[in-house]
Structures are given as structure tokens and as C-alpha cells.
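Hello Y.,

Per our agreement to keep a running log of every chain we model this quarter, I'm adding this entry. I've kept the format consistent with earlier entries: sequence first, then predicted structure.
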Amino acid sequence: MGSPRQDDFDPYSPAEIYYGSYKKTDRTRDRLRTYSVDFERARNVSGWGDAGSLSRRSRVRRGSLDASRFESSKFLISVVSTLRRLELQEDTDGNFQITIEDTGPKVFSLGTYQLSNLLQELYLTQSYGRRMIILDHARLNENPASRLSRLVREHFWKELTRDMGETGIELAFRKDQGSLIYSPANAPDQRKFYTELSHRRPELGLTVVPMSKNITPEYVKSLADRPGLLALAIESTDNVSSPMDGIRFLPYVTSGRGHDKLHGWDTCFNVLGLLASDRVDLAKSSVEHICFCIRHYGHVPQVNRSYYLTRSSPPFLTDMAMRVYDKIKYEVNALEYHGLWVTALRYDPATKLSRYRTGGFGIPSDLQMELRETLEKYAAKYGISLEAFIEAYNSGSIEDPDLYIFLMHERAMQESGHSDSYRFRGSCANLIAINLNSLLYKYEKDIASMIRNLFGDRLEVPADMCTGSMPVAGYVDRSAVWERRARQRKLAIDNYLWNEENGMYFDYNIVNKEQSSYESATTFWPLWAGVASPSQAAKMMAQSLPRFETWGGIVASTEDSRGILDQDRQDDHWDYPYGWAPHQVMAWVGFYRYGYDADAQRLAYKLLSTIIRSFVDYNGIVEGCYDATRVIDPHRRTFGVNSADFQSVLRDGSAWVNASFVYGLQIMTSHQKRALGALVSWDDLARIELKHQLMSRVSTIPVYPLFSKLQRRLQVNRQPRRRAVRK
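Predicted structure for the entry above:
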């Protein structure tokens, strides 16, 4: 058999199949599934014959397509000339995109969405070296929700996948102009590989730095002038053709375009999306990397860079691990819990709750540009240049108590994952945050469940894993201990963080000894963790949810809490009016946990509708976050690496927005999915569903008693009258 023609393929095949080297695949769109008898033969009674005379060819799809079978149009296209004409005629602002803001004549007889798809497909074709193609019209007119879901599953995850092998190291060094790899003391295989790589590829300038076993703030400060990458997990393999036989560097998904490193709390939401996309392999390897970080660095750094060694990520490991593995390594979870979150630095003995607070000295390397304006004021205070001030402060020759406190709160805010918010600015290290303690409550409940169900309620902890209050050796852990910790934390959360009057959880300031008044979307995290009682959940749904719900789902904070903006007080990333995927997904899961399925579906629809609207109108864009209050261009006021500056075709998107989209589709009804693909707003969909409900109620009014009564009256009237008999 010869090579199949391009028009033999499913029009929704991945680009490497549709435009790349041909490989015969199933023509899914041509499969006949549910059949009925052809109408013409059915009319001719004599043509029926016996059952065997009905051949397969006489059967067609049941329903509205019975009369004729849909065949999509196909076009023979010259790639270069069509692409050039399309750019000149339709891309009127010259940004290599076709959006609703372009004012071209649209003489291609296609709408903005189809034209932008055509532009993207032509650029994809060029990347595969094709000069002529047969393009199926169905590929241009694909349902938007189906198209984005397909791109996430087949392309975006692939483009966002990285590893710390030779290729990954070369890419990271080329972007960051770095050359250092920090290898943990008890990770000999990583050190051996990178040492061999430095000898084999001297042009990389790679230097392998063995790390100290005792990672302290003082040690991390000594690395400030030599920032580098932190080694990640590997696994044994049977492959003997690699530079280092028997070793494979596990892949992971980075946060988005422009990033190449492992990001801590992004990984939890990436795992949700990977599992929803049937990429269990990537989900497992992501969890392995998190476990490696905890085992070797004591926590999960925000990013696997050396200057994050004193700054952790929000603790999501138990939830990720329980989703991926049937049996996991419990001791890694306990190591992070005892060695980080209940230590003196982060644990408040008065409230018996934890807070975000990091160690560290000096001005963090990753914050020097972001805090430049503030640091210039301190440099002016001492009458020296900014560079001289940073060097003097980091060396300890200048000590400024005010700057120390400022940086302490900045580091804590970065550790929270909410890297820019008026909620935490200037006070984060003093706040008992509801989101952190919700996560720790779930840690305690999850570990109790693991010990009880996986270890027979008796777990002997290895000596090298004993930390905190555990003895050095011979320690046996039981589920009752962790259940007791969870109950104590819930009591403390109810006492210090729950506000009965407002029906909401707030942070607690341990210095002022009062609740914060800042209203944050993390108030719904106790629902995700199972902390809230049913009555507290009901109050939150009735009183709190209306304060956060907007056109695009849930906003990061209320407008009143954020406050008035002006020239000197600009909006922050994690405040109103922005809607973030982590906040929304946590709320959906929490609402489902307490039986508020309809609310979860409504909010999922609102976020996905926002994502799909920008995707359709703006050349396939997928942002890292959205302005949840804007209807037309919700991506417009956002910032970060996934902004609308890409050219021609987006190949990756934002990892946790990708994840929220495929995960959100799973909790929506089929009717809602169809409406989403048709770009129906939630308000319009709600009116349609209300109309259908009213009509269904009318149709179910019991009419049988009325009919029976009327029938009896008619029967009485039909009976012949008896004539009176004269006496």
C-alpha cells in the first residue's frame, strides 16, 4: 500500500500527523455508530425482505443526519502565497495575529475565528516544511471548546514539558546565562552525570557544586553571588545508549511560556490537568520531583533555583500524591510537615497555627528589580548608589531595621504564592493565613488516612526521617496522632479565623491580636480541605460567595478590600479584579465536597467562558490570569509571560489555565459544554435553562384525573334517556 493522502486523515489530528510525515490513522469522523434503516427503503415495504437483505451500506446515522451524510469541504492551498495575502489583507495591525480588532475586509468568506485559525494552521504548516496542503474546512470551523481542549492535550503539555537532562540544561543556561548546578550531598547519580557532562561539553561552562547537608539561611546567603539551578529527580532505566547508562531525567511541566524551571505550587494544579488529559506519566514524575525536593532540600522551593532554598511553596503534596499513587512514601510528607511548617520560625504557639515566614539575609536576587524603587529610597537615605547599597547591605556593613522588616514580609508574601497583594503587603509574616492552615489541616487528615489504610495503622519511621518532636529512632506513628492534630487545628481555625457575622474566614494578625479585614478568595479553601462544618459552608455560600462572584467567576479579592487605586497606588497581581485558576479550581472542588454542585458548575462555566472568549476573539490566546470583570477582552489588563505578544500561533499557553480548562470541562454537563462551544454567556444560558425548567414543569402537570372526570361525564351524557311510563 502507498502512503495515504492528506485528506484521508481525521481533520482534528495533531499537527505532526496532519501536516507532518503521514502515518495512517483511523478516520474517526467517517465511522458509523448508531444506525437506522434508510428512509427511502423504509417507504418501500416490498423492499424490506428478510433481515439479512439489509446490507451495511443501506444503514446510515440515526437522527437529523439520516437523509444525507456530512462531508466537510476541503481546499487545496498554496501555503506561502495564501499566508502572505492573509497577512497583508487581514492582519491590519501587523502583529502576526488576526483578532476582532483587525479591520480587514474579511473577503476570505470566513469570520474572525476561522481566519485566525487559518493563519495559525498556515504557520504550523510552514514549520513542517509544507508548500502545498489540502486543508479541511472542519479544521477551521472546529468547535472552540473542543479545539482548545485538543490543543491542551495534544500540544500545550508537550511544549511545556522540560527536564534537567543535557538538552534541558543547555536551554536553561542559554536563557539565564548561568552555569552552576547545585547537587545535594546525598544525590550521587546527579553529581556524576553533571560532572561527566561538564567534561564532554566544555562549551557549556558547566560547574557542579556539591551542597552542604545542613541548609541554613547563612549557607544560602553564602551562595548569593553564585546563583544556579537545583538538581531534580532521576530514575533508573534499561536504556544503555544514554551518556550515563541506566539514568533517565524525569520530565516536568513548567508554568508557561518563557519558563524552564520547576515551579512549586503551580505543579499541584498542573497535576490536575495532566490527570484530566490522561497524562498520568507526567503527573507521576511531577510528584516525584516534589518528593525529591522535600527529601533533599527540606521543602519545595518556589522554583528550583539556589536563592529559593529558604523560601517554600504552599504545601500541596499529600493531595497530589493521593491522586496519583495507590501507595506513596508517607515519610516525605511528614518530613516537610515536621521540618518546616510546625518549626519555631513558622509556628505560633499562642494560636497553635502556622504562618508564612522564611529565613534569609540580605536582598533576594529575584526581588532586586521588582523592589528597585523602594531600594533606591534606602540608597538615597545613605547617600550612595543603588548598586553600592545592595552590596553593603548584603555584606552586613549596613544594617537597617526597617528594611529588614520590609524584606521579611516580602519573602513571606512570595512564599505564600500570592506574590503581589495588598492582603499581605507589609504584614504577611505576622498573619496566620487561612489558606496555609487549610492546607496543613488536609495534610494531617491525609497522613492519618495513609497510615490507617496503607500501613495497618502502625508505621515505623526510619531514623533518617525523624525530625521535629519525633525520637531519633524507633518511632512508631499512628493515625490517631494525626487525627488529633487535625481536630486541634480545626478548633483553632474556628476560634481565630472564622467570622460568624460575615460568614467568612479571615487571616489573623498575631502582633495586633485581631482578625484582618481583608476579604480574600482563599476563604473558600477550608471547603476544599474539609475544615468547614455544614452550617459554616451554608453561611459562606449565602453570604461570602456573592461578594466574589463576577462575570468571569471568582475574583482574588473584593473591590472594597483592595481599596481605591490612584497613580501612587497601582493594582496588584493577586487582588481584584483578577481571577486566578488556583482560586477558582479550589472553590469548585470545595463546593462539590459540600454538595453545591450547581454552584461549582456555574463558576466553572464562567471561567471557561472567559478563557474561550479570549481564545476565539484574539487569535487563540491563553493567559495566565484574567480580569474577571471584563466581558470583551478579559486578557487585556493582565501581565506576565503569557501576554498577547506571541506571533502567529500560541504553542503552549499557561499551565494552570490549561489545567483549569480541561478539569472544568469534566464537572460541566453536556448541555453546558455545547453552550460553551457556541459562546453562550452564563446569563443567557441560565435564562434558557430556566425556560426549559418551566416548560418541563408545565408538561408534567397531572392531567389524568381531569381527563377521567371528563370521560365519565361524556359517558353519562351518551347513555339513552329512559322514557317515562304512563300509569
